[in-house]
Amino acid sequence: MTDYTQTATVTQTTTVTQPYIRYDPAYVRTIPGIIKIVCIVLNLIGFICIEVSYFSYHSRGSFFNTVAMMGFWFTGIMLVFYLFHVCEKFHKIPWLKIEMYFCAAWALLYMLASSLAAATNVEAFLAAAFFGYCAMIAYGYDAFLKYKAVRSGEIAQGDRAVHVSQQQQTISTVTTY
Question: Would the pLDDT of 163 be above 60?
């Protein structure tokens, strides 16, 4: 008589979302909401610092402003999506991965743009570099938070519950000759 043990792992994922768009001002009091607002403000202040300079036409200023405005618009649009639960309505789109890659790229781009701005001897560029480095830290921290959320299997909005269970079964066979 031979015994075989067979183990099966069953993972059941339940995603609960509300499929309608609604305004929810509570998002701006969460850590991701606060980080988005901080990034928007830093993008705008850095952009204004470069624009008020006499040397705003310089390639370093143009690059900094491109990074700042693209960050401003992407982060602003994502803030609106979260405030109105668009991310929850379209929960199949990997919003967290998109944001994670964007935030990581923007942290690197801000490091480059701020370093180029800091290498000049123009006060407005130096001020913009300071705000750019602050934005780099904010985008880097947001990318880290998004990375942790992606690794744990979270979704951008709504709830996802994962239930893992194991089932064991012993099979006995009788061998006759």
Answer: no
